[in-house]
Amino acid sequence: MRDLAVKIRDLSFTYYRGKNAALDGINLEVEKGEFIAIMGATGSGKTTLCLCMNGIIPHFMFGSLSGTVEVAGMSTVDHFIDELSEKVGMVLQDPESQLFSATVLTEVAFGAENLGLPREEIRERIDWALEVVRLKGLEHRSPRELSGGQKQRLAIASALVMRPEILVLDEPTSELDPIGTKDVFSTVKRLNREFGITVVMVEHKSEEVAVHADRVVILKSGKIIFQGTPREVFSNPDVVAESKILCPPVVDFGFALRRGGYELKEIPISEDEAFSIARSIMGKRGLTA
Questions:
Q1: CATH 3.40.50.300 in the chain, residue ranges
Q2: What topology does CATH give the domain 4-246?
Q3: Does 40 or 260 have the greater pLDDT score?
Q4: Which residue among 24, 99, 218, 242 has its CA within the 20 to 30 Å range from the CA of 45?
């Protein structure tokens, strides 16, 4: 029997006074310890789906809701956000919208203090969260003084201090440069692989998704139109065209080679795979890189 972190059945949602359904018949299961990426064009329902996983919908954002959402075995309708937040951590697109405290230390401490934990356990959780996101030593720095990538990692630490089983991230790298993006992805990957935290990430940077995600879920007009491994998604021209997502640049390189007559077992989806193919072709021609 599969051990599920997230179980969604026949989920539909229309915002109050909305004309069209933001989500329409969503069925999705996420196994414990899985890293899934949610992709799709603007307005496809990605953020709404995230908000349904942590109880903001239906408890704070209202509308017409049908179907069921269970996270860590709890119904998001029957349990309020304070209960859900101990199981599901949420990181938003703009980290500054989540950061309010004067120092890194007080920012991370906020959630644990609200749980009424003993002082020793609060300190232990803070130290662990800051170490995991590589902000140890910056406890007394103002969040405003941090780089974009550091701010986003601080937002992640603030979620981690609650010791969630599931981490939901809504386009956490959209405002970050390449260095900040890699920092966030490496942090999230570590949480997933080393600590077994289930990750649900809305993300449009396909070159990172291809390397880090176990599965990609594609939304269009509030519906799931395809899901599969990164390779199954990015090497399928029909899915890419219909969903209007961007592929990793190396995918175009692979298709160009095939059009040029080269036989490839698989289309590359990462730079390492593309370099390996290029070296193989050059070696057959007696060339060296």
A1: 4-246
A2: Rossmann fold (3.40.50)
A3: 40
A4: 99
